[in-house]
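Annex B. Sample input.
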Amino acid sequence: MTLTGRFVIRALSAAFAANVVLAACATPPADDPEARAELAAINDPWEPFNRAVFEFNRAVDQVLFEPVAQAYRGVVPDFGREMVKNFLNNLRSPVILANDVLQGEKDRAGDTGSRLMANTIFGLGGLFDITEIEFHNEDFGQTLAVWGVDEGPYLVLPLLGPSPIRDTVGLVGDTLMDPVFWYAHNTEHYAIPWVRFGMRANDTRSRNIETLDEIERGAIDFYATVRSLYRQRRNDEILNGKPPQSVPMAEISWDEDEEAETNQASAVVK
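Annex B, continued. Sample output.
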């Protein structure tokens, strides 16, 4: 195992050990049923740990992600940023297609496959979106939800942001389905996924600077607001934009791909 691998494993072990300790501190008394019911509804048993990671992510955003996004938007013209977004969407499309199929969404799978082929061949590798087919995002976290897997406890990951247990497992599934990951692995170009991650995070952050600032200014508890917005967005994605009830949501531009990665826009908020 490499030094980096050992470091990551130790860091994750320490983080989850902290989860256990902090969760114990946050557990309400057994004789307070209302408090316990409220905690169960929020499903955030590791909230002290999550808030600490949330503040870390916000600090990174303030000193790195937002300034870079501001500079990127100031230097790169609109058409250039649109080409970057199109390219990233196209790179993501094989994973989206796989999840469309796993969810039994034949029509959406056909749309994704058509977009991927047309934009790759005639759109210069995806730099141009030449189709009139609307882009949609799917990921393995959504697939697990469609299969009936419960969301699990809410979790905030360093840099990646909100990612309940189901979505965290989904990130692993998406990675294993990602041709870019396997190309980088097989050719030992390990920097490629990280470069793509940085490009995606920067693209998403640059398109949401004012919106996220407005949300933060209007939030009494910014952490709780982001948690609520994340869950609303995920529920909307899982139901393919057709929730059982109309829920007002802030207009954040997620159309690139959150993967998931989705989680970059949420990640850089913190």
